[in-house]
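Thread: "does anyone have the structure for this chain?"

Original post by V.I.:
We have the sequence but no experimental structure in hand. Need at least a predicted one for the grant figures.
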Amino acid sequence: MTTTHHAERPEGRIAYDDQGPSTAPAVLCLPSLGDTRAQYRALAPQLLERGARVLTADLRGHGESDATFTRHDVHDLAEDVIAVLDAARVERAVIAGSSISGAAALLAAARHPERISGLLLLGPVARDLPLGRILRPLWRPLFGAPWGPTLWGAYYRSLFKRHVPSDLDAHLATVRTMLRDRTRRHALVELLRTDRREVEQSMGAVRAPVAIVMGSADPDFPDPRAEVVALERALTGTRARSTVLEGIGHYPHLEDADAVIAAYRALTESPSRTVEGVAS
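Reply from O.Q.:
Generated one for you, tokens below.
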């Protein structure tokens, strides 16, 4: 049974798992908002099989992380990344970030280049898109209310487009239980509302190599392929390898873990800058 570790932060603790040899290259996996570190249940075993040391962390106010945090924004998430690395005594790591955690990983890499050896961005919501600004006032009444866990569960299910995990019902039951706690719903809503403009402005300062894996059917973006192009253009200081997976939704690491592993291997093994087209 995996032991839960904790990284101390000013307002509480961040929960994380630590598996694999302590001397192996480290990968820190961060889930999307409204979810837990179990989001990496398909990817983590494959990373371990390839000799990585795998850390999976819950976001602040989520999962087994404390519910005592009052601040929930992408800037805090970026510093939580470094706090987990410090607690685990990891000098440098690849950061795998899903959705908003992709934004946090980019910001951490821009601020702390000496700690980040690579970024694996999975359906990253890293820019402040127009639709997000329009919907921002609606997140609190939609998901902050007592019916929020049920509504979030329905929305979460809609993010899978090609392959629905066989254990999705059981996982969603855990997520809904988590969100029955009002303070954890507050964390969800505040992360939905966070401003990402600084993330976009800081992308040019990222020096670590980047791999972007996006689903062509990801409903969080009006045009996932156009979003990939925009991210590549913003990452002016590094090499990027991008893969768009045909028919996949918002969570490529759950719908096609093999393709994400291929992107991870290319990120950590290839010295050249390449941009891929559409993968099936």
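V.I.: this helps a lot. The CA atoms of residues 119 and 126 lie 13 Å apart.
O.Q.: and The two ends are 35 Å apart (CA to CA).
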